[in-house]
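> example.struct
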């Protein structure tokens, strides 16, 4: 069985991506990063998801991106709400270099494990306009990995899998449900209420709601609200 290091945030996309790759025959090594996000409730979801998927291992590491600022997700700036989501606009929730840092941590762990496959739940269809969720970025990271690691210069070829990259949110939800995933384990909200419930108004909540509505199913996180 081939191993793969999967970035597991605790959200809907990373859960689905991990499950898709597991179904393809990969053994999951899940990596969750505490990067200073205000929505740290995702970490709890990531733990539950890793257990539900039966990941071979689950590593949590810290990377204090909050110290460099520049994002509503790691600072005191208000999270945008009640607005149309425009992928052509890079929103205030963009975290500078986040996916580069996260994938670099995944790359380092993968090299120590002798694994050459990485995975991320990036999506370039129904998304918030983040530049590090595009196919050209992921291709560039693969090229960088081949020259930045001992394994790479010795001939290993690293691959970044993004199985959801060209899927709509509705397609992602449908794919996950077909795999029997429990989306009640996930957390997507950028700015949850004190109770932990989703705000329903941030970009992430809007995109999630759109996906479930277009898939014609109810979101289990909202079924009891």
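> example.seq
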């Amino acid at each position: 069985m081939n191993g793969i290091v999967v970035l597991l945030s605790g959200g809907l996309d990373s859960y689905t991506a991990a499950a898709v790759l597991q179904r393809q025959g990969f053994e999951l090594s899940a990596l969750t990063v505490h990067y200073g996000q205000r929505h740290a409730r995702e970490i709890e979801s990531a733990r539950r998801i890793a257990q539900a998927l039966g990941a071979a291992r689950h590593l949590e590491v810290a990377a204090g991106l909050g110290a460099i600022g520049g994002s509503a997700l790691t600072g005191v700036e208000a999270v945008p709400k009640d607005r149309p989501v425009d992928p052509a606009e890079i929103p205030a929730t963009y975290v500078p270099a986040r996916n580069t840092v996260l994938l670099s941590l995944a790359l380092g762990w993968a090299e120590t494990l002798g694994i050459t496959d990485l995975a991320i739940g990036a999506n370039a269809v129904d998304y918030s306009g983040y530049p590090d969720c595009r196919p050209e970025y992921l291709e560039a990271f693969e090229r960088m990995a081949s020259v930045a690691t001992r394994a790479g210069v010795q001939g290993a070829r690293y691959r970044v899998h993004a199985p959801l990259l060209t899927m709509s949110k509705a397609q992602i939800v449908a794919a996950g449900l077909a795999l029997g995933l429990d989306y009640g384990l996930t957390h997507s909200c950028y700015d949850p209420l004190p109770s932990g419930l989703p705000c329903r108004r941030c970009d992430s909540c809007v995109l999630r709601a759109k996906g479930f509505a277009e898939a014609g199913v109810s979101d289990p996180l909202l079924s009891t609200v």
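> remarks
The chain has one domain: 3-215.
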